[in-house]
Structures are given as C-alpha cells and as structure tokens.
Amino acid sequence: MMNKIGEINFKKIKRISPSQFYSMKNCAYKSLLAEAFDKKPLLPLSPYAYFGTVLHKMLEFIAKGVIKSEDDFNAEFDNQVKTVEDDLQKNGFGFFVPLKVRIRNFGLKKIQLKKHLRSESDQPISFSNTKFHSEKWFESQDKLIGGKVDLVIENENNIEIIDFKTGAITQDCLDDEGESYSEVKNEFKEQLKIYAYLYFENTNKFPTSLSLVDSAKQKFSVEFSEQECKSIFEEAKSLLKSINHCINTKLFSANPQEGNCKHCLYRPACTFFNKTLETNFSFNDVLGEIKEVKKFQNGNVSVILQNGNKVLTIKNFDSKEFDDLNNNKNKQIRIYNIRRDATEFVYSATDTTMIYE
Ligand code: SF4
User: Fold this and answer.
1) CB 212 within 8 A of CB 163
2) Which atom of ligand 1 is found nearest the CA of 256?
3) 256 in contact with ligand 1, CB cutoff 6 A
4) Helix or strand holding residue 147 (H, E)
5) Which residues, at least 6 apart from 223, have a Cβ–Cβ distance to it below 8 Å?
6) Cβ count within 10 A of residue 8
7) How far is the CA of 128 from the centre of ligand 1 (A)?
8) Is it true that the peptide bond before 256 is cis, omega within 30 degrees of 0?
9) Which tens digit of pLDDT belongs to each residue from 81-110?
10) Measured in whole angstroms, how far is the alpha carbon of residue 131 from the centre of its chain?
11) What's residue 124's pLDDT?
C-alpha cells in the first residue's frame, strides 16, 4: 500500500523528558516530527521494542512489590505478553506474533528478569526507615522538564536514583593506547544527571548515587557532580527553547547521519533524510522513480527504481502490491525497511517494509 505524508503541522514541544534529551540533542528535527505526528511512528517498531515494554512493566511491578512470588511473575508475564500481542494484531503487526518466536533468547530474557524477583524476596524491605518510590514523577518548577524515575530509594544517609534498562547499558570504547573497554552509554549518563537535578529542584537535596540496572540485574553506577547535573539540566531547557523557536522562524535543520536515522521512525517525513537517499545507498531505505514492476509465477512482485544513474531492484513484494505499484509508474516513491542483498543495488522487502509516495 502506498502511504502519503500530508502537510506537516509542527507544534511546540511543551516539555522535554530526561530520556528524550540525548536524541533531541543529536537531531532536534526528529523530536519536532514526533510532536507533529502526535508521537505516532510512521514506520513499525522492531519486535524488541514491543518486548522491551513488557520487560519494563515487569520491572516496575517487581519494584512496586505488586509481583512477589514466581507464580505472580509467570502469570503477569504471560498477561503482559498477551496484551502486547493483542495490540500488535490490532495494529496490523500480527507478523510479530508470537513474540517468543520473533525475539531471540526470549526464554533466557525471562529467566534473567526473574533474578530481580529472587533477590527482592531474599532481601525483604526490612528497613523501616527506608522508602522505595517506584515510577515517581518529577518535573521542574517551570514545567519544561519532566519524567518518571523508575525507582528512588531514600534512607537517612543515602538517596539512590535507579533507572531500569532492558537493552545494553554499556558500549565498547577504545582508550588512547587502543585498548578496548566498556563504558556506560552517554545518553544514560545524561538522563540520570537530569533526574538528579530534577530531584534536587523538588526536594532541595541531591541524590547520593545514580545507578542503572539491566534486565539481568547487573548494576552500573554513574559518577556525577552537582555542577554537572545543573549544566545538563540548563542545556536541556535551552535546547527545548531553541527547537520551539525554529517553528516560528521555519528554519529547520536536521542531522541525517546513520547513527541518528537508522532507528528514526519519522524518516518518511524527513526531507533532510530523503534528500540523503538520493546519493547514499548505505541505508535500508531507497528512493527512485518506478520504471518497471514484474510479477512472477510464484506471485512475488519486484519493482525496479531509477535513482539518478542507478537502477535499484527491490524483490519479494506481495502480489497484492502489484496494481498499486504498476499504476504509479514514473512516480517517485520511497521504500523503507528493506533488506540489502549480497548483490549491489538489489534489495528484498521484509515484514516491516513500507512504501511512501
Ligand atoms: S531521519 Fe534522521 S535527520 Fe531526519 S529526523 Fe530522523 S534522525 Fe533526524
């Protein structure tokens, strides 16, 4: 089916969340597009993102003490998976169902998550002076920054802010001597530092530690200084103001780089990215004029696109796409989420491929 992007109605972003800051800093235009489309993605998310919401919900329930036993865990896990799968079916992404087939190491991820449960019950909350706040909302006094902290643990001497992550927390880096080491991703460090300052604005106290916990219950500490937290907090606010200012001036800019765009779900509406597709063939998206549409005996459909002097072949479309593609010959289209074949300029459609005109 051929999709269309109508006129884009840009809207001011009222508030920035700590988890959004890093991506906003890398490409502010992405946040503007997300706001313009009411945060409804223009391309399907990966099944891992949907599964991530299950894992995060489970961590939240464990932290809140809603899930205490293994039986509770198993019942709620199945319930959460079913809810997500029903949603996927409803939204036309039934090909991701069942998730346990689509997600690599589904069983292992479930077992790892249970570790959170065991240690919670091994160490019951017996400190009467310790408070646990799960999913606690904090916002700045001017309401420009706000977000939910996964877990805050407070006692007389310590205040710890914990954020749960269901994906990789660290990335591999190289030091000056070329030795590799792993480090917590910058986006997570900055997110926690903004939470720390939000906490300070609301309570007049700084946390004593900032931590990230992954689904296998590994904990990573993030070092910070109060000054550093304050300056990232201020940076986030001025970024928000300057992004909103672009809407008045209509002088938009973007940062179309692989690291930013690969996972951006607003690519179809991004003129900067689509311009890049005219000359850059390293993405799993292509653009070009429809020159030929072929239907094979097995029902598969291939489309041949002309992009400048390059001829691109995209195979494996379903037969129901034939008429739509064939009726649009010589029209420029963009095809997103395709797989590159070993042969140069040859691609295959996937379950998540979408066509835009
Ligand atoms: S496609 Fe790339 S350049 Fe365009 S908004 Fe998304 S991240 Fe930014």
Assistant:
1) yes
2) 3
3) yes
4) strand 146-154
5) none
6) 15
7) 49
8) no
9) 999 999 999 888 888 999 999 999 999 999
10) 31
11) 46
User: pLDDT for 143-201, tens place per residue?
Assistant: 999 999 999 999 888 999 999 998 889 988 887 778 888 899 999 999 999 999 999 99
| Tokens coding 107 | 């069983």
Residue 118: per-residue pLDDT: 59
pLDDT value at 125 more than 70: no
> What pLDDT, on a 0 to 100 scale, did the predictor assign at position 128?
63
Sign of CA pseudo-dihedral 13, 19, 25, 26:
negative
Which token pair is 346?
A: 């040859």
Predicted confidence (pLDDT) at residue 345 exceeds the cutoff of 90: yes
DSSP string, 54-67: HHHHHHHHHHHTS-
Q: What is the pLDDT of residue 4?
A: 93
| Dist. CA 6 → ligand 1 center (Å) | 18
How do the domains of the chain map onto residue ranges?
Answer: 24-122, 131-237, 277-356
Give the CATH number of domain 131-237; options: 3.90.320.10, 3.30.565.10, 3.20.20.10, 3.40.50.720: 3.90.320.10
Digit-coded pLDDT (tens) for 235-273: 999 999 999 999 999 899 999 999 999 999 999 999 999
Among the four given CATH numbers 2.40.160.40, 2.40.50.140, 3.90.780.10, 1.10.1040.10, the one describing domain 277-356: 2.40.50.140
Ligand 1: residue of 10, 13, 29 to mutate (most ligand atoms within 8 A of CB) is 29
Radius of gyration of the chain (CA): 23
Longest dimension (CA), the chain: 74
Q: Give the three-class secondary structure for 230.
A: helix
Cα of 315 vs centre of ligand 1, distance in Å, is 26
